[in-house]
Design brief:
The protein is mostly helical and 966 residues long. Helix content is 58%, strand content 5%.
């Protein structure tokens, strides 16, 4: 941060001294346009990190609306938006974040200035009318409409579609070649809404632009598909001049094409396939840090409203789906039975649907697409499945496996004719490196009427076993599961904390071998992090084994290039952990009033009075809580063997206050509206910190060591109380040390990173990252990673659904409804499933078939499970225990006999009590006890019931009672 500030000062001084000699007096500060010129020059040199400092100085210089509009007039209306397309400005996460924020601020200021001056409908309409006036008025109108940019396009399109004035019409066509290239996207999209005569005129204007060849290279401005569509239609439905124009333009734009000899449906399908293959280019794309587009602007013609609409930020996957489906449908308009076009539509629709469904079941998550796929011929779906397997398109393979499995398709499960060795499509999918695909293929084969080859059956059981091992302890709101291997506990805990702050469930391991065993146990993980120290004997061998194992499922792998020198936390970082511990172990809850909510029924004066009183109370509670916590932290500091100078003491006190308020702000909303005085206090503390003179670091050496030992002892105590541990993790994960301005020790080793990159160059999908010490560093990595939908973590709900289905398949195998499968390897997973309420009923049937004592004991534990388990499940488990003992003998330890007797004596439910008595009689009764019970048995003597009067015989007169009053 100090280096950046010094560089900014040097740049400012250089700008201020531009154009002066040393002998001249100091001149005025540089003007905004001067700074922006330096920014442009630095960008042109590729010095993006330095350009970011110029950009910050430009914004701080306060450019006026006129200056912003002057820049747009000189460099184009999209000059500020184009800054988004740079993949990375700085390697420093904090600098990168700041530059991106500045870019968005600049875009906003430019948009606000243009809205106030240029984006006025009356102004645009006036200049459109002037396009049909005198030559001078027309030229000036063209210049002003060009300045207005994309805002003017809908008005121009509406005018050309509805205005009968020939002069205005001609003036608009003459203006199209003058406008900026990005605005052509609107004209290309509007071709859908024009009649043949207007299409002819607009196409002529587009083709007369100097940059016409560049237009055809961008998805939004490429009008080539329209030309092929014109040629694909029946000549009777297309004017001859429009048809000749389409032929001429295609031959001109693509010399040697000979468009009249081509089949339009083929060309349109190839264009659509470009979007399916992610090879299209886009104008105005906002890029990810790796350079790939993330969102793009798309113009759409609304046929119902007869209007053009610009969608500014469409995710790249949706844009590919929009254009690909559009052009493939045009191919089917020409030839409805054209198979390649049908395949492109199905593949595009299926892949995007799988992404939207988060790799879940299409039948429930995407019924419209599923209906489309269910109506498709099996041969088409089989071809798409084969293409997906060959091209490694996970989403396509998953969609086809689901649909073919749901229809119990024979062809997909049958080996190719004449191929004795080559497996069927679904058997091939069993080895595809993705757990969702593997499970879908296994499910499809188990539903198919075609017998599963014996060689594939062990693989199916293993897939079901790993799917059934879904960890029931993962929080429902978790974004996914991360496996982290690192032998250094402190470093591993710090990285795990960062990962949990993103919402991940984290499992920690100390070696690569442990990690591989975990991967083999279950397939419910999403991302792998491994420190390079955790891979004995060689990292390259470990990564090779990991990538060759289909159980790793092609999941993303990060290798952490941590220094051989362990990172020691600074004293300020230890203070932050101390403050979080104090907050997590408070005995008395902070009685913070909720923020004020307006009551519309109350009069304004009453609202103001209530709000003022509530805000004052919140400020008082914030201050009193901060003061109490500060005193507790100060007591801890006073116990440490450290001597501070006056400057160090002032710095320490201010940082403690700032840390305490930062912790409180994670617990309670802190805004200028909810607690204005507290916000001012925090800002005052920050300013005082900035004004402090430089001082040697405090707490180095023995004080840090002593504080760290104290923290470790307190953390052990906190870990014993789950609520306190959860609060401690929550607080630490949500306070950013960078934002607090705390110094963080980092030991980045560029030489090591380069060495690891060379070592693992054969595995381009493996990412080498420095040791992540802040959220910003990991945010960038995740933003790049998850820009690819294939890398997104699977939805926990989908994992649980697969686990339920896997348990059901294993149950059917166990009871003999799916014969021929050896499921002995799945016993541990099935026993574990007994503890999951939604899996337990099916798991009971399967576990009962295992002959082991562990299976018998697991069933009995379910039966004895108390009120937390459903009664029906306990009865079912108890019944299974009886049958298991009868078939395999008792394997229950003697320590369970007494609890079993107690449960049999106290169980309130008669049916379950009877089951326990039966089990006790089978395993827990000695002959002598039985004889004693016989001797002591005494049946209850019940008193006779009331005597029932005989019912009168059928047809007999009822007996009359004597009249008491004759």
């Amino acid at each position: 941060m100090r280096t950046a500030s010094f560089l900014a000062l040097a740049i400012a001084l250089a700008l201020a001294g531009a154009g002066r000699t040393e002998a001249q007096p100091k001149g005025p500060p540089p003007k905004p346009l001067q700074i922006y010129a330096q920014f442009r020059a630095t960008m042109g040199e590729g010095k993006f990190d330095v350009a970011g400092i110029f950009l910050d100085e430009f914004l701080k210089s306060g450019p006026s609306e006129a200056e912003l509009l002057e820049i747009e007039s000189k460099y184009g209306t999209t000059v500020f938006q184009q800054l988004r397309t740079i993949p990375k400005y700085s390697d420093d996460p904090a600098s990168e974040k700041k530059i991106r924020e500045n870019i968005e601020e600049l875009i906003k200021r430019g948009r606000d200035a243009a809205t106030k001056v240029l984006y006025q409908p009356d102004r645009v309409q006036k200049y459109i009318r002037n396009l049909g006036a005198t030559y001078e008025e027309k030229i000036f109108a063209q210049q002003e409409l060009k300045r207005t940019g994309e805002f003017a396009v809908p008005f121009l399109i509406d005018a050309i579609r509805t205005n009968p004035d020939r002069d205005v019409y001609s003036g608009i066509l003459e203006t199209i070649p003058v406008l900026e290239a990005p605005t052509m996207a609107g004209w290309v999209a509007a071709l859908d809404g024009f009649g043949p005569d207007r299409q002819y005129g607009v196409l002529t204007a587009l083709s007369s632009r100097r940059d016409v060849l560049s237009l055809t290279t961008e998805a939004q401005t490429d009008f080539t598909p329209y030309l092929w569509r014109v040629l694909s239609r029946d000549p009777k439905d297309v004017p001859e001049n429009l048809r000749r124009q389409a032929l001429a333009l295609l031959n001109r734009l693509y010399p040697g094409t000979k468009a009249d000899t081509k089949r339009p449906e083929v060309e349109l399908t190839e264009i659509a396939r470009k979007f399916y293959d992610h090879k299209a280019r886009y104008i105005g794309a906002k890029t990810n840090p790796d350079g790939s587009p993330s969102v793009v602007p798309v113009w759409v013609w609304d046929a119902k409203l007869m209007k053009i609409e610009r969608l500014p930020e469409v995710p790249i996957g949706q844009a590919e789906e929009f254009y690909g489906l559009r052009y493939a449908r045009w191919a089917l308009e020409s030839r409805p039975d054209y198979g390649p076009a049908q395949g492109v539509i199905l593949a595009l629709a299926a892949e995007r649907a799988v992404e939207r469904a988060k790799f879940g079941a299409l039948a429930t998550a995407e019924p419209a697409v599923y209906r489309l796929l269910s109506d498709a011929p099996s041969a088409v779906l089989g071809d798409l499945l084969n293409r997906g397997l060959v091209e490694k398109r996970t989403t396509l393979v998953l969609a086809m496996a689901q649909v073919l499995g749901d229809r119990a398709d024979r062809a997909a499960a049958t080996p190719p004719a004449g191929a004795e060795v080559k497996p069927s499509l679904l058997v091939r999918a069993l080895s595809y490196p993705d757990p969702a695909v593997q499970f879908a293929a296994a499910s499809a084969l188990l539903r198919s009427p075609v017998p599963v080859p014996p060689t594939a059956r062990p693989l199916i059981v293993d897939i079901l076993r790993r799917a059934a091992a879904n960890d029931p302890g993962v929080p429902g709101e978790s974004k996914g599961t991360v496996l982290l291997a690192d032998p250094a506990k402190f470093r591993s805990d710090a990285n795990a904390l960062l990962l949990r702050s993103f919402g991940f469930n984290v499992e920690q391991f100390t070696s690569g071998r442990e990690l591989l065993r975990r991967i083999g146990r279950a397939s419910d993980f999403d991302v792998i992090f491994i420190d390079h120290h955790a891979a004995p004997p060689e990292l390259i061998d470990f990564i090779g084994q990991l990538r060759a194992d289909v159980k790793a499922a092609a999941r993303p792998v990060f290798v952490i290039a941590s220094s051989d020198r362990p990172r020691v936390p600074t004293f300020d970082q230890l203070l932050l952990r101390t403050a979080a511990l104090i907050a997590a172990t408070e005995n008395d809850a902070v009685a913070m009033p909720a923020p004020y909510v307006v009551d519309p029924r109350a009069p304004p004066d009453e609202q103001l009075a209530v709000r003022t009183a509530l805000v004052k109370r919140r400020d008082n509670v914030f201050r009193s809580a901060a003061a109490a916590r500060t005193v507790r932290i100060q007591r801890v500091i006073d116990t440490l063997p450290m001597t501070l100078s006056e400057t160090q003491r002032r710095l320490l006190d201010l940082r403690v206050q700032l840390i305490v308020y930062a912790i409180l702000a994670t617990e309670f909303p802190l805004t200028p509206d909810s607690a204005p005085e507290t916000v001012l206090d925090v800002e005052r503390i920050r300013k005082q910190l900035d004004r402090q003179p430089p001082s040697p670091a405090y707490g180095i050496g023995i004080p840090s060591t002593e504080l760290m030992k104290l923290i470790e002892r307190l953390e052990i105590d906190v870990a014993r109380v789950k609520s306190a541990q959860d609060k401690y993790d929550f607080l630490r994960a949500r306070v950013d040390t960078t934002d607090l301005g705390l110094k963080v020790e980092t030991f980045r080793d560029p030489a090591l990173e380069g060495k690891l990159a060379r070592t693992l160059s054969g595995y381009p999908s493996v990412r080498i990252i420095p040791e992540p010490y802040t959220r910003l560093a990991l945010e960038t990595e995740f933003r790049v990673l998850f820009a690819d939908p294939m890398m997104l973590p699977r939805d926990p709900a989908v994992k649980k659904a697969d686990a339920r289905a896997a348990i059901e398949f294993l149950r059917l195998m166990a009871i003999g409804d799916l014969p021929g499968y050896d499921i002995r390897s799945a016993e541990p997973e099935l026993r574990a499933a007994l503890t999951v309420p939604e899996l337990a009923p099916a798991a009971v049937d399967a576990v009962e078939r295992y002959k082991s004592g562990d299976a018998q004991l697991a069933l009995l534990n379910v039966a004895l499970g108390g009120e937390g388990r459903p009664l029906a499940l306990r009865v079912k488990a108890a019944d299974a225990v009886i049958r298991h003992i009868r078939a395999n003998g008792s394997a229950l330890p003697a320590t369970l006999i007494d609890p079993l007797r107690e449960q049999a004596a106290n169980e309130p439910n008669a049916e379950l009590r009877g089951k326990f008595l039966t089990i006790k009689g089978m395993v827990g009764v000695k002959p002598g006890e039985f004889v004693d019970a016989l001797k002591g048995y005494s049946p209850p003597i019940l008193p006779p019931g009331p005597k029932k009067e005989a019912e009168p015989k059928k047809g007999a007169e009822p007996k009359k009672e004597p009249d008491p009053n004759p």
